[in-house]
Amino acid sequence: MAEVENGTGAEKAPAVAFTVLKPWLVVDAPKASDAVQFYKTAFGAEEVSRVMHPKRKAEHELPLVLSAELKLGSAIIVVSDLINDSSAPVKTAATGGVFCLETEDVESAVARAVTAGAAAEGEISEGDGASCSGRVGKVKDPYGNIWLICSPPKKCADVAA
Amino acid sequence: MAEVENGTGAEKAPAVAFTVLKPWLVVDAPKASDAVQFYKTAFGAEEVSRVMHPKRKAEHELPLVLSAELKLGSAIIVVSDLINDSSAPVKTAATGGVFCLETEDVESAVARAVTAGAAAEGEISEGDGASCSGRVGKVKDPYGNIWLICSPPKKCADVAA
Question: Is B112's CB within 8 Å of A10's CB?
């Protein structure tokens, strides 16, 4: 930080290469296990790894999840219990995230998510030419996150007025 | 939905294949352009596409961003202005998302993000054996999202007690 003097300096700073971006869903403890099961059932997510919190707190009935990694589409998402101790990188439950999931079968995907416990929001409709175009359904998961379930985008330069 | 009778039915429903997951960051209008510039400057994100809202609202000084897609690490993130009309798939600004970004050079990445306008939260420290292990820094962007900037995970089965 000593080498840059003001806000415009960042553009001259050496580029930093990022390899991976993982959305991290932090849920109120001890709901992470439930959330992992929900994402498996609702979206067919595959659990890649799970690390439990080493100190099980007496007041918690269930051991807490430090991080569970799930493969979902092209991404890895991380699901954690909110743990209020010094080891926690995040101190508040992060709810209200929005994620776009692409699939060829929007209707089945929405139906499956709703059956697993998500709330459908509105009807499946035609998108608007932006990222989520084609058919678009929307569900809210039990942990506060919104999932837009869309058919893959078609190449279109037009935006309907 | 007619074919399944209760919450456990989803596990028997046909699997739905998702191809892509895109985190979608919805910011208060008209800040999306600023946010895109911030993610470029702070994280070296590359803009892939941008679709503007066809109806520029009189009360807004700037045209609104329907969706801008940015390549960031292994992912595509979408940045949109919050647009309160019937075409909007999301009706509330989504802030408070948490994202893990992996890089070999955590210090430079955090410094660059802070120079670009992110707020550093705490010191860079050693992670805890979970998803964000190795060195971990944390910044909050001007739009309310938290970015954990971590060195790539080493294979470790141990979790320090």
Answer: yes
